[in-house]
Amino acid sequence: MMPLPYGGKLINRMPDGPDLARKTEDARILPSISPLIDHVYDAEKICTGAYSPLDGFMSQEDFTHVLEKGTLSNGMPWTMPIFLAPAGKENTAVLDGARASDTIAIADVAGKPFALLTVDEKFPLPKSDVAKKIYGTTDNAHPNVSDISGMGDTCVSGRLELLGRLPHVKFEYTPQETREIFKQKGWKNVAGYQARNPPHTAHEYIQRATLERDDIDALFIQPVIGKLKKGDYRADVIMDAYEAFVSSYYRPDRTLLGSLSIAMRYAGPKAVLFYAIVRRNYGCSHYIVGRDQAGVGNYYDPYGGHRIFDEFDVGVIPLRYEETFYCRACGGMASTKLCPHGAEFHQSTSQTGIRKALAEGKPLPSEILRPEVARILRRGDVINE
């Protein structure tokens, strides 16, 4: 059956009707902060239930437990700190003046109040500890470590209320919406698939292997399209490519395409477990874990994301897959678990190679990239530089 939300209850911090109208009006005269887009995305996902059981930014107690033990203070496994630490003189002035039980507004990137925060406590942000204990490095070449260094020095915790959804590209669902879709379609066992790039045939190989399983009803493909990093494809390109791919090669009664607008966490195994928890909240019973998921550079063990599920039980069944590639000797996609041939027969499906070929106008074989996807990626404005 479809799993319960993490913690047993789907958080909903979205007032409606007269209550929403009143709070929206009040927000216009409240002190307001304008945090990084990372925090803006997190605030929305807290309120829609994607981060259940969190109903606000973490307290110092929960924050410390996550750093030190990989759990919330109640012992539930949780590996990524969800905190608010805005930088800048104006934000700092608002936080300095805020006291416990005060309400402040959080502005979106356009400067419009979109959420309310009832202040609980303030505490110092231990930037070096977050870098070392969550991301495993203090190297500013790591994109998340670099982001942390640009945040404020003080965290503020407290419950949130959402005044309105952020503008998104298509296919952005709330957990409540996906759970209703799964229920309507009769899906009980749904495998969540994490992505941050357009699909190539190595992705397809893993997805098809999952759909062939007797214990899987459907596949929920949910690329992260919020803040990524320099060199990544834009959100609209990723979703356009996946839409073309899914509509051409998968049965609509067994697949759902959605987007997840959050800042990408490149934290290796810790991020893998976090993403699995999020997908459970969206209604997934299983979660696909490939090689070096949520990795960047050479900071993490490529298969650490497989093993973390042996250490922490988050109520999601991991589907572990090894490295995949096109093998000329096998005549198709294969994995290190199956293929007996040497590396000289293997054709990489790395995004770096695909981007380079596209930028140089070189043809890409259909064994690597479906033509429907290649046509979209050949658009001249597809890569953030």
Task: Describe this structure as you would to a colleague.
The protein is an alpha/beta fold and 385 residues long. The protein has helices at residues 17-27, 37-48, 60-69, 89-97, 127-134, 143-149, 175-185, 201-211, 235-249, 269-281, 304-311, 351-359, 371-377, and strands at 32-33, 56-57, 103-107, 113-124, 154-162, 190-195, 218-223, 255-257, 286-289, 317-320, 324-327, 332-335, 346-347. The protein has 2 domains: 17-162, Sulfate adenylyltransferase, CATH 3.10.400.10; 175-377, Rossmann fold (3-Layer(aba) Sandwich). The strands form 3 sheets. It has a 5-stranded mixed β-sheet. The protein has a 5-stranded parallel β-sheet with strand order 8-7-6-9-10, sandwiched between helices. Strands 12-11-13 form a 3-stranded antiparallel β-sheet, covered by helices on one side. The termini are far apart. The mean pLDDT is 94.
Write the layout of secondary structure elements.
Elements: H1 17-27, E1 32-33, H2 37-48, E2 56-57, H3 60-69, H4 89-97, E3 103-107, E4 113-124, H5 127-134, H6 143-149, E5 154-162, H7 175-185, E6 190-195, H8 201-211, E7 218-223, H9 235-249, E8 255-257, H10 269-281, E9 286-289, H11 304-311, E10 317-320, E11 324-327, E12 332-335, E13 346-347, H12 351-359, H13 371-377
Parallel strand pairs: 1-3, 6-7, 6-9, 7-8, 9-10
Antiparallel strand pairs: 2-5, 3-4, 4-5, 11-12, 11-13
Helix pairs in contact: 9-13, 10-11
